[in-house]
Amino acid sequence: MFKKLPAILAAGLMAAVLTACGSSGGTGTTGATSEAGGSDTITLGFSQVGAESGWRTANTKSVQEAAKEAGIDLKFSDAQQKQENQIKAIRSFIQQKVDVIAFSPVVESGWDTVLKEVKDAKIPVILTDRAVDSTDTSLYQTFIGSDFVLEGKKSGEWLVKEYEGKSEPVNIVELQGTTGSAPANDRKKGFGEVIAADPKFKVIASQTGDFTRAKGKEVMEAFLKAHKDIDVLFAHNDDMGLGAIEAIEGAGLKPGTDIKIITIDAVKDGMQALADGKINFIAECSPLLGPQLMDLVKKAVKGEQLEKRVLTEETTFTPEQAKAVLADRKY
Ligand code: GZL
User: Fold this and answer.
1) Which of 28, 74, 109, 297: CA 20 to 30 A from 262?
2) Residue 174 burial (CB < 10 Å; 0-12/13-18/19+)?
């Protein structure tokens, strides 16, 4: 799979594919976004979910900067949150005979067919950020990303502690991530498992906000119209929580006080809202997967056996903890 082209031809080819690495690649790739070396340069095809949130933007930056740092020729495609665009991009990477394919599956299901095509083309696959529900784990070398169930559990555990010793009902509304995505499914699962232990916790409404601020605001406005007794919002990411804050303030209520807010990610804007007391608790989900991904890409090209699961390290934040680290946050 290595490019054995003579250096002059490789340079010419590279000049041809070096395009502005725009983020609206749609179905096609947006060309190389890294300075490639000589003919033994590794080419990585990467299909990104989209640009739906601050987390995603930071994840894209991490992948692009790490590829450049590693001297890996990155062919980057932005799927604009559509599975069909990711499948088209993966097929395009097969045609281009890239050395490795990595992608963050926008949803868990519907990947077996295209991943079998990649396997037949003998190109290693690395799942990045999100998982697939394929039972055939030979279809990918490894999955690097967070434990979303644990993030949901950490969110539920904070709530249980916050209402310890109280008996009155706690009415919760939930802004879910993208329907069918691993983070949405697993965060809901983890949170639900923890609060199920105490019947005072009731999820009175739960709907997808598609991980975006705009949708989070829109759905929270609907929740506020339908329910006058909301105590807590659990949002599967900061961006939906930030949109919901706008809706809550628009309804004349104080976010973080009248309605307690729990979110996941810990991007800068979320951490600012946490420091300001508008969010009460954030479970971190690190987007900085780029360097680990490039190490895995190099190992895959060498034919090394990779750990099937590579977990990312992350923590949780209260308002005081956010104030202490805000200035140093990388994303
Ligand atoms: C989680 C990632 C999620 C983030 C959202 O690893 O897939 O997608 O939590 C992002 O902010 O849109």
Assistant:
1) 109
2) buried
| Ligand 1, CB within 6 Å, residue ranges | 52-53, 55-56, 129-130, 145-146, 183, 211, 237, 239, 264-265, 285
Is residue 231 within 8 Å of 170, Cβ to Cβ? yes
CATH (residue range 148-285): 3.40.50.2300
If one residue of 23, 285, 289 were mutated to test the ligand 1 pocket, choosing by the most ligand atoms within 8 A of its CB, it would be 285
Give the separation between CA 331 and CA 63, rounded to whole angstroms: 13
Mean pLDDT for each 10-residue chunk of the chain (331 residues)? 45 42 40 55 98 97 98 98 98 98 98 98 98 96 97 98 97 98 98 97 98 98 98 98 98 98 98 98 97 97 95 94 93 87
Taking the domains of the chain in order of start, what are their residue ranges?
29-146+287-312, 148-285
